[in-house]
Amino acid sequence: MADGDGDPGVFTATALPGDPRLLPTVTNAFLGTRVFRDILHAAGVYSGAAGDTHRADVPSPLGLRMAAPGARSPAESFALNTWTGTFSHTIQSPGYTATHQLYAHHSLVHLMAFSITIQRLDGSTHPITVQLQSLFVPQSQDLDLTLGPDFQGAHYIYGQTLVPEVEGGPRPAVHMLWTPIPQSLTLGGEEQERCWQFLTAVASSEEEAKRSYSTGLSLAAAGSLHRSHVRAWAALRRDCSVELDGPLALCQALHGCLYYLLSAIPPRDSPGVPFHGISPGGLSNGTRGEDYWGHVFWDQDTWMFPNILLLHPEAARAILQYRIRTLEGARRNAREQGYEGAKFPWESAATGREVCPEEIYGAQEIHVNGDVLMAFEQYYCTTQDQKLFREDGGWELVEAVAQYWCSRMEWSEEEQLYHIRGVMPPDEYHSQVDNSAYTNAVARRSLNFAADVARDLLLPVPEEWEDRARKIKVPFDEERKYHPEYDGYSPGEPVKQADVVLLGFPLMHPMSAEVRRNDLEMYEPVTDPAGPAMTWSMFAVGWLELKELQRAWSQLEKCFSNITEPFKVWVENSDGSGAVNFLTGMGGFLQVVLFGFTGFRITRSGLLFNPAFPSAINELKISSLSYLGNKLEVTITREEMRMEVTESSQDPLASPLEAVLESGQRFPLWEGQSVSFPTAPGWIQRSPSRTS
């Protein structure tokens, strides 16, 4: 649905970027690597204690490069196909083509594979040889590795990480099997075409590694290994399809963001495999000293999660289960800081203990606790999945965060309000401030949500939760009608990144349109233009909310200076510094599309909509929006909205959905029936009547 030439979901090039960090990544829920790199990473496998904890480098047999011996400057091309989840390198020589395809299998998450295909193009009968240049050595600076016996033709190494994250804690095990790689491959004189397959299986147990390798071998023998990956990946892309009719660059950016973010989530049929969270640079990055060492931040919960929730609630649940699994570590963090409940780490790895190398962030950037809980709230409002809270540990986490906020507040006799003192807001240019507007607003939201869930689960609601939610200070300047970032903030002071603007979205802190505008006007000119990539998307959402379409577009356009060519890999900062494959920035960008252009807002009573399109965009289609157990196809133009329930809730007691416009018009949403109405504000809710 893009104007201009070319498929917006296939990124091609005749040369690679000079900076290898900007090469594309191939990743699934458990394994990830950057193309042509000699290391890979396995989810949850960290080495190093506390501040030194980083993703353990696993030696990768996948990082090889084809070369054509004797050919004078053959034509080379490279492609990342986001529809098939496959990277390819092609050498076009007189008389033959050699193609190298690489992928992380989407449904067999312990398996990565590549193939080399040589195809004769003329009637010649001489052998054709392609060289394979590999840097692979079966050793690692992070793993104590031992060579084991070969298995079904594969070499085998196994071992453990060298240093546990916490003293006396587990050292994750790694078992790897791989197809031996020759220095060259030759197509015989009598052959027209041949394909060689190379598998790498990595798991935490010998049994799983062998099972995955055997399964891959059987599929490869049947000629269906790559096809089985493409089928699983294409099903995911179809289920999470978002299409824009707009400028080609915007459509390419959208497909790039969907490719990299969806690569990070678990496949639909893997409920038994624990998920290990999403770090800012994804699983392919995060070796020591790179991409925040593979740690998980608020980036996951605030910036990536809302998109995953609307498109794939099962994967969103897996992200929340990662936080539930690390709750004990968060409880210990709170105790060590002298507070009650649980304090989620600023940087999290496998245990939930603080692994940030610099103490100030773990001690002061406590808004992460509210960010985690907001993801739980959005999930609850969108799915009404009470099982997560009743049986699977969700309630214990909600309660622990509420207890932490209560113990972290102090009563101000002077203001007759609760204060939270000595924090670092999202704007990391300031620290040790009192009453960060964002931190206090997200704490209030945590407490209100905790009280709501308690009531729904028929549990007693502690009085102090409601009292503190009512009486916590969120700084507001009555004269200028805006929110100062913290007590004592002076207008004009530089700000690192989106902070107060987040009060409007995603926090939906109550305020008038005038105040929302003033916050945007106040902070837009003083926000560092070299700050992190996700910032401008939140200004764009704010201006879309106020129907300032040109201003929204100019903010969204700033994101493009963080998108590198040719593979649409994002950099954290526009000068190329910081994390690469910056999923946080991509998450912000996707929120402009999924929440900004649509006006979707997740609330307790319904899913609000209020579309706003900049002039360059004609149509937006979301093929499979998930809401309350239903899947909806939603198509929006400036003039009309079309909705159709393509799959209705499996809950026999659930009433069907309806769309309600602010004008009062109601449109029942029955499965298989398309409903259209003029584009206007409204909401989707369960129909009050259960009779069909």
UniProtKB/TrEMBL annotation:
Cross-referenced Gene3D superfamilies: 1.50.10.10, Maltose phosphorylase, domain 3
Keyword set includes DNA-binding: no
Region of interest (Disordered), ranges: 672-692
GO cellular component: cytosol
Domain Glycoside hydrolase family 65 central catalytic: 284-490
Function: Catalyzes the hydrolysis of glucose from the disaccharide unit linked to hydroxylysine residues of collagen and collagen-like proteins.
Protein name: Protein-glucosylgalactosylhydroxylysine glucosidase
Protein source organism: Drymodes brunneopygia
